[in-house]
Every structure is written in C-alpha cells, then in structure tokens.
Amino acid sequence: KAGVTQTPRYLIKTRGQQVTLSCSPISGHRSVSWYQQTPGQGLQFLFEYFSETQRNKGNFPGRFSGRQFSNSRSEMNVSTLELGDSALYLCASSVDTYGYTFGSGTRLTVV
Amino acid sequence: KQEVTQIPAALSVPEGENLVLNCSFTDSAIYNLQWFRQDPGKGLTSLLLIQSSQREQTSGRLNASLDKSSGRSTLYIAASQPGDSATYLCAVVVTGNQFYFGTGTSLTVIP
C-alpha cells in the first residue's frame, strides 16, 4: 500500500513569504500529525488533526497553522517566514493512536 | 512535561558486534513507545512499537524492551551490519497522540 506522501520534497523561500506544505496519509488513516526537525531543537510537535479537527497543538507561534480535509489529506501553512523556520517538516499518519507512519518530509530552506 | 533522553548520543562499533541503545522518559503515563531509524536527510522509518501494556517486541535482529515503571526502554541490535548505520530515535506517545522524541543515537557500524 502507498505510504505517507509529502509534497514538495524541497522548497526554498525568502524571508517574509508564506509557504504551504501538503501531506497525504495512508488510506484509511484519519490522524495526521506534523513535526518540525532542526539540528538544534530536534523533533518538535506542531499539531495533530483527526477527522478534520485539530486535536492537539504544540508550542509554536500562530504563524504555523494547519488544516485537514474530508479525505484526510492535510496541509500546513507558515506565514511570514523567518530564517529559523528552515527545517525538515515531517508528517505522520495513523488510524488513531496505534502505530504512526512517517513521510519522507519536506525540506524547507528560508533565505 | 515529558522529557526523553537517549544515551549514548553517538556510537561506533565494528561489524558483527551486538549493541544496546538506551532511552529514558520522565513521565510513565504513556500510550506506547516507538523506535525509529532515520537516515541522513530522510524521514523516519518505524522499527518497533511497544504498547504500554507490553514488555518487549522483536523484529529480526532487533529487540526492544519497555519498563514503564522505571521510564526506560532499550533497543538491542544483534550482529550489527554497516547498513545499520543511521540515527536511532526513541519516541513516546502521550495523550493527544503527541510524540515526544529523544535526541537520538547516531550509530556507525565499521566494516
């Protein structure tokens, strides 16, 4: 079966711009979570969606937002990009609480 | 707040050696614990998942144990191979389906 698909794989943006990342979960998975990975902070939780509702949110500023569609696909948006937003953004999906599968990530570089 | 620590941060072993990676967490109220592997610049590959009611899981040359009461997990890799070289991450799932990740152990297996 197809895994978790994240697009695009790589992205270069300029400070002040906004960006939208996409995540298509495994078929049948209704929970989608987003994580940011940086060398200094490691993997940090952004938010989790289940059946189009945000169930949990990490400690990130309001510039980071997300949504989930009725087909469980999810997008995350970062507005007013800062240099520190450069990171690998990972999406994970699960049926609910059991066994998350991660995508390959989107590498965002802010210049 | 849940904190996850992994020791050692880096490990270099000759091929064929058995090795143990350690993970500790501060809050024992977890749903499950998952071990992941991450190759440079890539996403996370799930290795083993241990439910909170379980003590261990095995897959091939990998064995993971969980002692929830003491807040510890170990990942045992038997007969290490150069292809095992990667960063190994331990993560616990708490309420809200949020992963708390450790900082990882970078493993190098020398041919």
Protein traits:
heterodimer, A: 111 residues, mainly beta, seven-stranded mixed β-sheet, 0% helix, B: 111 residues, five-stranded antiparallel β-sheet, 11 strands, globular
The major beta sheet of chain A can be summarized as: 7 strands, mixed
Radius of gyration of chain B: 13 Å
Radius of gyration of chain A: 13 Å
* Structural class category of chain B: mainly beta
Question: How far from one another are the termini of chain B?
Answer: 41 Å
Could you tell me the number of beta strands of chain A? 11
| Overall pLDDT metric of chain B | 94
Q: What would the principal axes of the Cα set say about the shape of chain B? A: globular
Q: Which oligomeric state applies? A: heterodimer
First-residue to last-residue Cα separation of chain A: 37 Å
Largest interface: A-B, 28 and 24 residues
Sketch the topology of chain B as an H/E string, one letter per element: EEEEEEEEEEE
Instruction: Give the helix proportion of chain A (percent range).
Output: under 10%
Q: What's the tally of helices of chain B?
A: 0
Write the layout of secondary structure elements.
The complex is a heterodimer of chains A (111) and B (111).
Chain A lengths: L4 E3 L2 E4 L5 E6 L6 E8 L3 E9 L2 E5 L6 E5 L5 E5 L8 E8 L6 E2 L3 E5 L1
Chain B lengths: L3 E4 L2 E5 L4 E7 L6 E7 L5 E8 L4 E4 L2 E6 L4 E6 L8 E9 L3 E4 L3 E6 L1
Parallel strand pairs in B: 2-11
Antiparallel strand pairs in B: 1-3, 3-8, 4-5, 4-9, 6-7, 7-8, 9-10, 9-11
In short:
Chain A has strands at 5-7, 10-13, 19-24, 31-38, 42-50, 53-57, 64-68, 74-78, 87-94, 101-102, 106-110. Chain A has 111 residues and is mainly beta. Chain B is mainly β.
